[in-house]
Structure formats: C-alpha cells, structure tokens
Amino acid sequence: MKGLELAREFYMTYGRDMLETRFGSYIQYMAMGLVGEGSECYGYDDEYSRDHDFGPDFCIWMPYEVCKEIGRDVFRAYCELPGEFLGFKRQEQQLEVMRRGVIPIEEFYFKYTACRDIPDSNIKWLKIPENFLSIATNGEIFEDRLGEMTRIRKSLLGFYPEDVLRKKLAARAAIMAQSGQYNYGRCMKRGDTAAAYLTCQKFIEAALSAVFLLNRVYMPYYKWSFRAAKDLHIMKMTVEKISALTAVPDRQENAQLKINMIEDICKDVGRELNTQGFSRSHDAFLQMHLEDIMSGIKDPIIRSMHVMAE
C-alpha cells in the first residue's frame, strides 16, 4: 500500500470521526490531507523509503489563530489515535516539526514560499525555488471545509506568472548554452575531465528544469526529478535524451558523442521555445534565444535583471 492511500484510509477510518466528535465546533476551520516532505507525498514511496515518515499519519491544517487556540488539544487527540493501522506503525510526531499532525496554514506555506498567502509580486514568485513549490503542492487534500488551504494551493498550482516563467526559461537557456554548448567541449579539449563532469552536470540540471518549466510543472528536488519527469506530457523524448546523457562517462573517446547529444537536446528546447511563442530564433545555439525570451517580460524589474539571475 502506498503511503498516500494509507494516510487517506487512516483519516477516513479514525481521524474524521475523532475530529467531528471532539472538535465539532472547530472542524469547519480545518483541512485534512497529506502534503509536504516525504516520498509518500508524491506517491514515489517503496520498500526503501519506509525508514522515516512512512506510516498511517496525516496533516491537519487550520488558520494560525485557530491553531493557537486549540492546536495543542487537537495534536494530543491526534497522537491518541491507534498506533498501528493495516499492519503499519505510526511514527512519533512532534508539534513543532510541522511535517504531520497539526500545522497552521500560514506557517505551512511560509515554510516553502516565504509567503503566508499567495505571493503578491513577481519578485516573490521568482525567489521561490521550484522544488519548494513542488513540495507545497504535492500529495492530496482529503477534505477542506474552510477552503483556505485549497485556495492557496490552487493558485500555486496555476504556476509561475508569465514574466517569472520567461525569466526562468531565459536563465535555463543561458546555462545550457554556457555549460553544455560552449564550455563542455572546451573542457574536453583541455583534457580537464573533472571540469567537464561539472559542466555536464550543470547542463543536465538546467535542461531538465527547462523541460519542467515548459510543461508548467514544478521540478522536485534532484532525487525525484527524473522520476517525476516520466509523468510529463511535453518533450518526453527529450527527457529520455537527457537521461541517456547521464550514462555516458566523461572520457576523451566519448567527447564528440556527448557534444552531439548536448546539441540535440538544445535543439529540442529551442524548438519548444518556438512552439510556445517564447522565441522566434531558429538558431541551434540557445544563447541566440535569450533576447526574444527576455524582451517579452513586461515587469521592468524582472526584465532588467541579469539573464542568469533568479
């Protein structure tokens, strides 16, 4: 059984009745579900990931003022729920950790976005790492009677504002051009395979992020990025090419092969930038797409930033 399903079943079997019985006048302010850190929140959990966090546990979100009033009582009641369910033991929880159990809505989102509500400026959106937004919007909300948790979640899932998306795409294209199309070949010509390894790593991370951005999906942190990429609908073949690139060692006999693979990935990204209207350039060198991408940014502050800045 996957952790998300286990959490949902535990809530439906024990959690909902406990909250309705003991906190009936407050449940209207609560949302219940499983969102946040842990592979089970993505549905990626397996037998190797059950050494921490995994178990029949769920989250109870409520506004900060309500949490201040009854949070500790709700947490104690939550901890008194059965310690084992369907053969799985519950993890010991701490109120201050804010991973499972009682969590103020504002504090949950602040932890990942530095905002207690929907980000209200392009700069605030730009400063939020993609993997943090992925964490804040994964999993499932089982029930939300107040609707506040869902309101913010839906806005975040709506993805970055257009200007921020353009800025991020420009940064990814610039890094891909610099690290992959320019520096990788130079490093290999010098015989500096250590530097070539680092430039290729930079290229792969930027290329994969560009694919996620073009799919309007937040890329999770590195451990799950390739796993999550399997579910993307746009540029599936490009993801396979990026994955194949990771398997080729940085040795002199592989240099031209890797240069060609990098160039092929860049062509894919360039074509998709054309398709989605971010760039009119048909040049294979991604550096030539940057002016078009940046010139479409309306926010003068974002447009004036260094092309690689975030």
Molecular structure report:
It is a single chain. The protein contains 13 helices and six strands. It has 310 residues and is an alpha+beta fold. It folds into two domains: 3-157, no CATH class; 162-303, Four Helix Bundle (Hemerythrin (Met), subunit A) (Up-down Bundle). The model has no long low-confidence stretch (mean pLDDT 94).
In short:
With 310 residues, the protein is of the alpha+beta class.
The amount of helix comes to 40-55%
Indicate the radius of gyration in whole angstroms.
23 Å
Low-pLDDT segments, ≥5 res: none
Q: Kindly name the structural category.
A: alpha+beta
Number of strands: 6
Number of domains: 2
Oligomeric state of this protein: single chain
Largest sheet, described in full?
4 strands, mixed
Strand content: 5-15%
Going across the major beta sheet, what is the strand order? 5-2-1-6
Q: What is the N-to-C order of secondary-structure elements (H for helix, E for strand)?
A: HEEHEEEHHHEHHHHHHHH
Tags for this model:
13 helices; two-stranded antiparallel sheet; alpha+beta; 310 residues; elongated; four-stranded mixed sheet
Question: Secondary-structure map with pairings?
Answer:
Blueprint: H1 3-22, E1 31-34, E2 59-62, H2 64-79, E3 84-85, E4 88-89, E5 101-104, H3 105-113, H4 122-127, H5 130-136, E6 140-144, H6 148-157, H7 162-190, H8 193-214, H9 222-229, H10 236-246, H11 255-275, H12 290-295, H13 300-303
Parallel strand pairs: 2-5
Antiparallel strand pairs: 1-2, 1-6, 3-4
